[in-house]
Design goal:
Two copies of one chain form a homodimer. Chain A contains 14 helices and 18 strands. By secondary structure, chain A is an alpha+beta fold. In chain A, strand 2 and strand 3 form a beta hairpin.
């Protein structure tokens, strides 16, 4: 029976001195005259297995020719390793080639630049770095599901195709069945009646508004799915396609919202630390020194809660020459985020933002100037989540939409949620890749998405 | 402290004769002269709570006016219910209106047609039927994640935007940033150089090919994400947007693939039965009589494995006047699927299909006529999953692509997987909504998707 490397590591005491069969790939191969060492990985765990073979094997000379990258089957005996930092190794009884790999294989056991590996995106999960990053991605995704499911949240699949463009006007991708060479026109405008949905359709930028309909039926709901921005930004943190988590909770105010944000983030970070120990150790060692300490500190910390006004007060008093002068009524810059988390030496919730820089659906505070919104600033990452209490008051919501010149007809269903048994409710959004950048220490969003889509890049 | 209805049900012995506070919605309201009954739900569990209030309450007359659909907060004492089929009820100490609901609220406590409810899609999770269906959707999604994660599979987010159209030519949605009124042209063709990705882009129809790149790095991987078909089909089982699960496993042949398909399906069905008992009881009673028995039988059954040829043999021998005559070398029809699952009185894996009706990437069998593909036919649902061993032989894959006139350059990375340490590998795909139709007994795909997208329909 073939077993996974993961199982071998997990039950090593059981398997010690036993014969096992494993199947996987050669990551490195050191040949010596009378024996050889194969650095083996089957991808089921981060740690590799060292295979030792010697010239007692019938096909010794053939084995010596096996190239890096080849798929092999190995029958061997699990033995204690003479090396200190290695629990065991495999003494080969039989090594069979399952799939060859030519010598021009791009992933050789040496340091490759991340830029080079982006061009080889389909092969990069075979490197240590990306093997770690994409397993962390998988485990973190599961931790998010587990957190919400264990607490009775209903997982809501928000629609990807949407006819509404209320949130991201101008930054949405159009979706059509038309042959773009001959778009049907009618009286000078595109004849969307002839398209699949008989209306203009786009890719969603957020599932929040629809998620609110589920919160008002299930009390607790969350989305976890892809969202899209047609932004032509070539930065390290922007992608055109990314995954978002958007929880929404009825009978929950801003305070309750922050409690959930804090608890969830700590849960996910802790889960990844516990379930990806080898991956995190590697990332700590080779990507961001102090990564594990940073994350462990977050899990133990208490998150500060201050208002936007208090934040500006602190920033104005700071003895610092700002690039952007902090101002009441305005957004805060990266340098301010950094200062404020350092000032409190931990994560900071900034609440009650000026209404004019926040979205229409956020609850207006009694001062008529600020909204019950919150951004979570985290040391070393800046803003990692944002949320708000939603405006549950029908008149106030409609009047805000009027002020902003928004079409009420298109969102009548959303407005109706305030009419049909509306209640205080809140939610937040977390960009999954932003979390992954924080968790892995990898700086570029292109390196935490298997096949990133950015301006000019839609490969694989 | 406000508690969830779910918690009350789970720890009823602890809460009996205690005071609790709950927040939720009035689903029904029966008024009598000196007291009243409120049918209450907060959406955290399927079962409602009966609230009894009487004229000892200060605001008795006001409470009597509360409409169906309103949000309320209730403080009350948990007491044994005099009704036989009800464990407990709540004797109200205080009932407060949180959010009113007018009398023209569309979701009144009476029978609504599913067609009507589709038009009110944003309110339908508040009905018993959809409350049940969308919780089953959430729990089944989680069961799928749990199955794969517990077994060490890496969750792979396949790209949604793709420049490749090899699988679903002609049935893909175009994605563009162009203003459709003035698509830029260059020498008579669309100038995609000016679009976001500098190439023609579409919505994915499958993440399988990309998932194979992860299987050859992690051994075991699965996708779970939205996929799209630009088909203009108005049937009960087609939607333009739906979610797919696509596992992919290295060092696994068709037999191993079938073992995983069988084990996974049984796991998910069993998980839903165990974790949604009230929902399933309701669906059994009001949607599909015998639903639970059908599902329990599946979990206990052994899946038959026969070839496509053997299937045609059986069909040809059957004493039945077919609408479509079964033929070797051809696909089988709905009526054949039905017959074959009845013939074996259980689920049937049909293997080794004629290559010409299957996809290019499926492994050619030694007969040069059939491929190592499999469809799983399930009693009462027909085909619920399909999979195959993938062609791992470079020459055979390329030659098949040539036969079909496919562009090799576009898929060079996919072909290279056979060159760089390729190995036997297999996978399968399951349409999530098809599974949900089977699990819930609801017949129309529009009723298992929160906001379905079908031709002419892109609302909410």
């Amino acid at each position: 029976m073939v077993i996974d490397a993961k199982e071998l590591y997990q039950k090593i005491e059981e398997y010690m001195n036993q014969e096992v069969i494993i199947e996987g790939w050669i990551r490195n191969h050191r040949r010596q005259k009378e024996f050889g060492f194969i650095d083996f990985s089957d991808g089921t765990c981060f740690d590799h297995i060292q295979i030792v073979y010697d010239n007692q094997l019938e096909n010794f000379e053939m084995i010596q020719k096996y190239h890096v990258g080849s798929a092999i089957r190995v029958k061997g005996k699990v033995v204690k390793s003479p090396k200190e930092n290695q629990t065991f190794e495999l003494q080969a009884i039989e090594v069979i080639l399952l799939g060859d790999c030519p010598e021009d294989y791009p992933i050789q056991p040496k340091k490759h630049s991340r830029e080079f590996l982006r061009e080889q995106a389909y092969l990069r999960p075979r490197t240590n770095l990306f093997q770690a990053v994409f397993r962390v991605r998988s485990i973190a995704a599961y931790a998010i599901h587990k957190y919400f499911q264990d607490r009775g949240y209903v997982y809501f699949h928000a629609p990807i195709l949407t006819a509404s463009d209320c949130e991201g006007a101008g930054e949405m991708f159009h979706v059509t069945c038309f042959d773009l060479e001959k778009v049907p026109m009618c009286e000078g405008v595109v004849d969307y009646n002839k398209d699949m949905f008989q209306t203009e359709a786009s890719l969603t930028v957020s599932g929040q508004l629809e998620a609110e309909t589920f919160a008002l039926a299930y009390k607790k709901t969350y989305t976890f799915g892809p969202t899209f921005r047609a932004e032509n930004s070539n930065t390290k943190v922007h992608a055109n396609e990314f995954w978002m988590i958007e929880p929404e909770i009825a009978f929950c105010d801003l305070e309750g919202d922050m409690e959930i944000m804090e608890e969830m983030l700590k849960y996910v970070v802790d889960y990844v630390l516990k379930n990806c120990p080898s991956e995190m150790k590697f990332l700590d060692q080779f990507v961001e020194k102090g990564l594990i300490e940073k994350l462990e500190k977050l899990v133990k910390s208490t998150f500060t809660r201050i208002t936007h006004k208090e934040t500006i007060d602190i920033l104005k008093k700071a003895d610092i020459k700002w690039e952007f002068e902090p101002e009441y009524g305005e957004d805060i810059a990266k340098e301010h985020e950094k200062y404020i988390t350092e000032y409190f030496n931990g994560p900071v919730f900034i609440t009650n933002w000026p209404k004019d820089i926040k979205a229409f659906y956020m609850k207006l505070n009694e001062d008529n100037e600020t909204v019950a919104a919150v951004d979570l600033e985290v040391p070393g990452a800046g803003e990692i989540m944002g949320g708000s209490q939603r405006e549950e008051n029908l008149e106030k919501l409609v009047s805000r939409m009027d002020e902003l010149g928004m079409d009420q007809k298109e969102l009548d269903w959303y407005i109706n949620l305030r009419k049909f048994g509306g209640c205080v409710h809140s939610g937040f959004g977390m960009g999954f890749e932003r979390l992954l950048i924080y968790l892995t220490g990898v700086e570029n969003i292109r390196d935490v998405i298997p096949y990133p889509r950015t301006p000019g890049n839609c490969e694989f």
